[in-house]
Predict the 3D structure of the following.
Amino acid sequence: MTLDLSIFFAILAMAAATIFTRISGLVLIRHVEIDGRRRTAIEAIPPAVLMAVISPTAFAAGWAETLACAATAIAARRLPMLASVVVGVATVALLRAAGL
Amino acid sequence: MLHHSRPSGEFLIGEFFAGMRAIVPLVVAVLPIGLVFGAVAATKGLSPLETTLMSALVFAGGSQFVAMDIWTHPASWVGVGFAALLVNIRHVLMSASIGTKMQYFIGIKRYLAMLFLADELWAMAEFRAGSMRLTPAWYAGIVTPFYLTWVGSSLAGALLGAFLGDPVVIGLDFAFPAVFVVLVMGFWRGPETGAVLAASGLASVAVHHFLAGVWYIAAGALAGLAVALWQGRAREQAA
């Protein structure tokens, strides 16, 4: 059970950032009127951020990852999250085993 | 009734257990994801204590997996802190939305509740508030088992991780890209979402190719946001 100081500070930085995002919505509704355009912008943030996170894996890591992302996306239209994730993990494992 | 403003102990316990019953399916679903997180963290060189601390203090799975993706030695607190801010910026909207439905949360309770605002708990609370009153006791009932499962399964995954071997061989490293793909599909609202996703994807791949670090997340987010703002303006002018 070790606790490295640089890792501890990294965890604290992540915790502080997350607490900031969780509290600021509460503070926001006390001070700001959310109009139509602001709402549009805020609603676009989650898909934009998630897409940015996965795009290098989906489009620039290799064929196994690209095809597994596509399989996961198709599975997600019908299956619950956990099953879709299993489809993606199994696909990437099979394709890597096949040498892709 | 003089004491109608103070709910009875029986009512509080009933609400707490109703919350616990409601969260059971999501507790079952988060357990393997916590195990995977712990195992991935072990392969990145985090000790079981460090892994458990991260799950307990950050309690935001998406940003924890992103941190593992960009983890360096020594750990860069600027890098992972900035990534956590970007990945969790959606919490601002979630907290603003649920905050308007917390009229039974007095004073500090509202802020305490917000510290545990994970996607799954937020969705459950929004659903509850749509049909019944959202009480602090019910909210505590959904938070407690979910939080303990996330932290506990992270620890178990960290301890078992050494025995699981290289997660790349069995595709475990792909678990969270897969979760993100599912989440992105959930945000689909038609062709306008497609344009936002295309802009974000193009910008992040390009920046990832040329710049080290997590700048690609910021670039993709800003590109998607710019397209959304442009769409909003075009719609206003057309109206």
About this structure: Residues 28 and 48 of chain A are 21 Å apart (CA to CA). Chain A is about 85% helix and 0% strand.
